[in-house]
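Quick start: what a row looks like.
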Amino acid sequence: MAKRIIYQTLPRLWGKGKFSDWDDASLNYLRSLGVDYVWYTGVPRHATGKDFVKGDPGSPYAITDWRDVNLYLADDPARRLEEFDALLARTHAAGMRVLIDYIPNHVAPDYEGRICRYDWCDGDWTDTRKNDWSSPDTRAEMLEILRFWAARGVDGFRCDMVELVPPDALRDLITAVKADYPSLLFVAEVYQKDNYRRYLDDVGFDLLYDKSGLYDTLRAICCHGASTRGITWNWQWLGDLQPRVLNFLENHDEQRLAAPEFLGAAAKGYAALACSLLFNTAPFMLYFGQEVGEDGIEGADGRTSIFNWSDPPELRELYRSLHGESELAPDEAAVLARYRELLAFAKRPAFAEGGTWDLMYCNENAPGFRPHRHFAFVRYAADEAWLVVCNFSDDPATVRISLPPELRRACPILPDFTTAYASATLAPWDASIIKLA
């Protein structure tokens, strides 16, 4: 199976903020990156213009009508569902599938419908009210909502905060809707690592965020000097779950890589990108503008706001460049070129579906190798093998990586050797990818 790439976008911040701005030029661009699924965030109609709403136009996670789309996304609000259907058709015609949000834990206070809810909210989500899953009406309505969108042609759902909802209810929903739409993709937002297997094997999700695993590990390495050995530990902990987690470095909840609060520059994220994208067979998610270095400065705390109208500058320039209105600045173009290069590697058989050989255990004392700031691994398939060495430091390096004989037994296309070595030159915060066979 080819490595799946998911691209998350908030349509209201793309172009003029309409469904129609995801036109052929925009969608062809995503296909050129190797994108398989587009997650259109903020499609179902949410609360806006009310005193409880956070920001203006408000949060996509405070749904006020589950069978409608936001009026502001349509060129002709009276035909908004038709315009969404046209977006579905364009995306499918471009060779990609569509995800939208499914939010089982809460709705907006002004929601009208069969979902029963309490008169309180979780945490500081004061623009929502908690759904009552003990009610048969809630369970029946939430199933019909899934069927409504699946019948329109939606290919899957990113399911919000599922650990706050009874697992048996989610299992029943997924089983029921997949009986009619077996190809639907269900992606879970799960934070407790001890819940990973439960939500995959028992509840029935297809993928779940590895936020508390690889994302947090890479963040700690990049920002707090944690050891790169943590990547190995997370990989070993996941074991057979590797293909069923979703790797990412950005989404709407997290700070932008290039934000001052995170790395401060997109080019400092290449080592993390190479690990998250290439180390295992897990699908990978991009957040719109990440690939040109969007820094979230216009938002709050390094995040692109999901509550307010905003005009992220790198996103604006990316849209304009795709429509022949301007060219990307040299630094933005350089970031995009590096992302294209690494995304292309991800589609190769060795990286998409091949084996992984972590080399950290046999390179503790390798010349030039820093075992807490460098990370090395091999990816291999029947007809190719690649060495990847990542540098999580400010210092360039030249390293001599040991390739152990047991790797040759796992990957017979490698030359026969007792102990072999491969040299790599590392730029700061970047990765080198070297063909071995």
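That is the whole record. Residues 136-152 form the longest helix (17 residues). The longest strand covers residues 63-69.
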